[in-house]
Amino acid sequence: MEELKISLTGVLVASIANFFVGFLWFSVLFGKTWAKEMKIDMSQKPTTGFMIKSLVMNFIGCFFLAYVFAHNNAAWGFVPGMEQMGTVGKIMNSVIFTWLGFFLIVGLNTVAFEMKSWKLFFINTTYHFMMLLVSAIILFYL
């Protein structure tokens, strides 16, 4: 059996990149709207300890996402015909199928069972799509 080729450098770079994508997504781009939809009181400043814990947990999550996604992408290389698909096709194939199968359905359940808004659904699911896209581009080229 062949060994899966996973670039740990790629995983680390994707983790760091996704950490910054999250920062931009939930502060500059959609921060106020996301906080409103999550019913977070922005006048209450979180403690330093809370922020450090949250950021560390977020980075660990970014690392796990990048590592597991790298593993999945490497495994896709064994599917017959994949070598004939171009790089953009491979990237989009891995992003779309992973997003549809693992992220979109969870987001739909937050609307259906947790009664979260569709606005929050779109903010969160497009963020997850962007995380996968950034990871795929980095992982395919490193």
Describe the structure in your own words.
- The chain is mainly alpha-helical and 142 residues long.
- It has one domain.
- The chain is built from 5 helices and no strands.
- The protein has helices at residues 8-29, 31-37, 48-76, 87-113, 118-141.
- Helix 1 (8-29) packs antiparallel against helix 5 (118-141) and helix 4 (87-113) runs antiparallel to helix 5 (118-141).
- The chain starts with 7 loop residues before the first helix and ends with a helix.
Short description:
The chain is an all-alpha fold and 142 residues long. It has one domain (8-141).
Walk me through the topology.
Elements: H1 8-29, H2 31-37, H3 48-76, H4 87-113, H5 118-141
SSE string, helices as H and strands as E: HHHHH
- Please give the count of helices: 5
Oligomer: single chain
- Overall mean pLDDT stands at 95
Helix content: over 70%
The major pleated sheet works out as: none
> Cα-atom Rg, whole angstroms?
17 Å
Overall structural class, as computed from helix and strand content, comes to mainly alpha
Number of domains: 1
Strand content: under 5%
- Give the strand tally: 0
Distance between the termini: 23 Å
**Morphology call:** globular
Low-confidence stretches: none
Which labels suit this protein?
mainly alpha, 0% strand
